[in-house]
Design goal:
The chain is an alpha/beta fold. The protein has three domains: 174 residues, FAD/NAD(P)-binding domain; 114 residues, FAD/NAD(P)-binding domain (3-Layer(bba) Sandwich); 85 residues, Enolase-like, domain 1. The chain has ten helices and 28 strands. A hairpin with a 2-residue loop joins strand 25 and strand 26.
Length: 434
């Protein structure tokens, strides 16, 4: 008899776990998925290309409704299927419309919620986040009839939203509370190159700036943004893109242990061993998550444990940052700022718009920032994760793998392994083994 697996959340992390389960043990579970959005599973990280007009919703769909049917999965999707309660004693999930489904194993993948700036006017019409298909559809609708868009947040999501709205013909201003764009991913020099390129595309910046209030036009719609210095910007559409918070409301309601997120162990189990959690809603070893790579690693470890295959566990690795704006290439990983004990390797070709910085500590890469030419990013990340001693190739490391790696390989081949063999207690024979 199949076990009953219920999944709360039809996003990328939860459905990646389901895909891994189907690959590992396709006949083990009877699967029911609850999703609050009326869609199949789509690639949320590709919302920016949909906004800019490069992709359609169909093109970013990972699993359409037919896929669920083909795999024997019951999909309960839409606002009325939003899960409002879990009876952990009876092992039962309860939706807004009263639907109840019992489980043997429960997977919570409720993702995250956008952070809404607590300023007057944040509930006006025309004030939205950038989180799902509905938000993109709202932005596309405004772009047809309105002119002035203001994006709050100079991070990845904010810049992607700004670029997309410019592509749709709006006048766009990005406001950011820091003087450096992507200040959590880029140093000052790379950030200036990025800002110049976005300005050339038509994006305007006001930073650092402190938002004081959103102004009502008298009908309940936003008309302007007021700043702490007293200045104002006209605004028909205000997009908040200043980060997310783990969506743990349901987990807290039903008594699962939460801190910043739903606390899970290395196999993605909560403190209730029948309940698992993956994705942006979890907290693992004091960390929360907002990028897709660690979520997929969590999905693999969780599926492995649910299927009873081995003892695979999840471990957090450094995650690289990339911006999804066509024609702009940047890469950032690890500790890209360094400290007084670090050394720095720099390469600049500002005429070509290329910049590289490697941060070294104890002859190992601990961080990297690349702008323009990012082709070596994956290799630098590999060296970082494997803690490779870069001493033999230090002189050419900044120029990339083709120049530097032969020096490392030559160094390794020239280092003989010495064995000492004692015979009759008198003579020592030394062998050089290449």
């Amino acid at each position: 008899m199949k076990q009953r697996l219920v999944v709360i959340g039809n996003g990328m992390a939860g459905m990646k776990t389901v895909e891994e389960i189907l690959a590992a043990s396709p006949d083990q579970f009877e699967i029911t998925v609850f999703g609050a959005e009326p869609h199949g599973n789509y690639n949320r990280i590709m919302l920016s290309p949909v906004l800019s007009g490069e992709k359609t919703l169909d093109e970013i769909m990972i699993n359409d409704r037919q896929w669920y049917a083909d795999n024997g999965i019951t999909l309960l999707a839409g606002e009325d299927k939003f899960v409002v309660d879990i009876d952990r004693g009876k092992r039962c999930v309860i939706a807004r419309d009263g639907t109840q489904v019992h489980y043997d194993r429960l997977l919570i993948a409720t993702g995250s919620k956008p952070f809404i700036l607590p300023v007057p006017g944040n509930d006006l019409q025309g004030v939205i986040a950038f989180r799902d298909i509905a938000d993109v559809e709202t932005m596309l609708s405004y772009a047809k009839s309105r002119r002035h868009a203001v994006v709050l947040g100079g991070g990845l999501l904010g810049l992607e939203a700004a670029n997309g709205l410019v592509e749709q013909g709006m006048d766009v201003t990005v406001i950011h509370n820091n003087a450096i764009l992507l200040n959590r991913q880029l140093d000052n020099e790379a950030a200036k190159l990025l800002q110049a390129e976005l300005e050339a595309r038509g994006v305007t910046f006001k930073m650092p700036a402190q938002t004081e209030a959103l102004v009502d036009d008298g009908t309940g719609h936003v008309s302007a943004v007021r700043f702490a210095d007293g200045s104002e910007l006209p605004c028909d559409l205000f997009v908040m893109a200043i980060g997310v918070r783990p969506n743990i409301a349901l987990a807290e309601k039903v008594g699962l242990y939460c801190e910043k997120g739903i606390v899970v162990n290395d196999t993605l189990q909560t403190f209730d061993p029948s309940v698992y959690a993956v994705g942006e809603c979890v907290q693992h070893r004091n960390q929360t998550f907002g990028l897709v790579a660690p979520l997929f690693d969590q999905a693999k470890a969780c599926a492995n444990h649910l299927c009873g295959h081995g003892v695979a566990g999840y471990a957090t690795l450094p995650t690289a940052t990339k911006l999804k704006v066509t024609g702009i290439h940047l890469f950032s990983v690890g500790n890209f700022l360094g400290d007084a004990e670090c050394e720095f390797l720099l390469f600049r070709d500002l005429a070509a718009g290329n910049y590289k910085k490697l941060v070294l500590k104890n002859n190992r890469i601990i961080g990297a920032v690349l702008y323009g030419d990012t082709s070596e990013g994956a290799w630098y990340q590999e060296l970082l994760e494997q803690r490779v001693d870069i001493t033999p190739m230090r002189g050419l490391l900044i120029f990339g793998r083709a120049y530097a790696e032969p020096l490392l390989l030559n160094s390794e081949s020239n280092q003989a392994t010495v064995k000492s063999v004692v015979s009759d207690g008198k003579q020592t024979v030394t062998e050089n083994v290449a």
